[in-house]
Specification:
With 208 residues, the chain is of the alpha+beta class. It contains six helices and seven strands; from the N terminus they run αααββββαββαβα. A seven-stranded antiparallel β-sheet has the order 2-1-5-6-7-4-3. The termini are far apart.
């Protein structure tokens, strides 16, 4: 947990990072942000709304030796649930059973969530600590998306320490396949209706 007397952004901006910022000319900008307290430390309505639209995430952990690992987590939109203003959780489904993330969290609770919204060119970074909760059937059941065909093995409960949203620079716009398919179906229906209307008009004109 970051020192309460320090800005929350110190979770990322170590002394070495600040020295690099100073050398590269960006330290003054981030110093002003730190003076306001740094990164946000509670789940806001905007973050909750963002999470409700997310169907994919990357969870980063590290083992006791500092070896990093990032693993994809996904599910229906909103699979990451807000439990309170500092806590997120999601059901952890059975996968390839390597259990690297679970092993890392057993040694080192520090974790990081990286969330992308390509359609709207937004990305959110969340620092905190995570723990594996196994055997709590009520919690796991409450985190399972309705009708989702997956087998939950445990829950991942993430305590948020700080979060930040990046600018959209360099984020490519990508659209979800289901959204594209829905838009194409709408266009096909509209074209079919216009073709039917056109055929009816041609028939009417032919009978004059």
């Amino acid at each position: 947990m970051p020192n309460d007397a320090a800005p929350s952004s110190d979770v990322a901006f170590t002394a070495t990072v600040k020295a690099v910022q100073e050398a590269r000319g960006s330290r003054q900008t981030y110093a002003r942000m730190e003076a306001r307290g740094g990164f946000r430390t509670a789940i806001t309505a905007d973050l909750a709304a963002f999470l409700a639209e997310i169907d994919t995430a990357y969870l980063a952990t590290a083992n006791a030796a500092g070896q990093p690992y990032a693993q994809h987590r996904g599910g229906p939109k909103g699979f990451i649930r807000v439990l309170d203003e500092r806590t997120l959780a999601f059901a952890d489904y059975r996968g390839n059973r390597q259990y690297v993330t679970l092993g890392n969290l057993a040694e080192n609770a520090k974790a990081f969530l990286f969330l992308m919204d390509y359609a709207h060119r937004r990305r959110i970074k969340i620092w905190g600590e995570a723990k594996v909760v196994a055997g709590d059937e009520a919690l796991i059941a409450s985190l399972m998306p309705d009708g989702y065909d997956a087998t939950p093995e445990q829950a991942i409960v993430f305590t948020l320490h700080a979060w930040d949203i990046n600018c959209p620079q360099h984020i490519p716009m990508k659209l979800d396949a289901a959204d594209v398919a829905g838009a194409l179906d709408h266009l096909k229906d509209k074209i079919a209706a216009l073709e039917a209307e056109n055929a009816a008009l041609r028939e009417k004109l032919g009978s004059l």
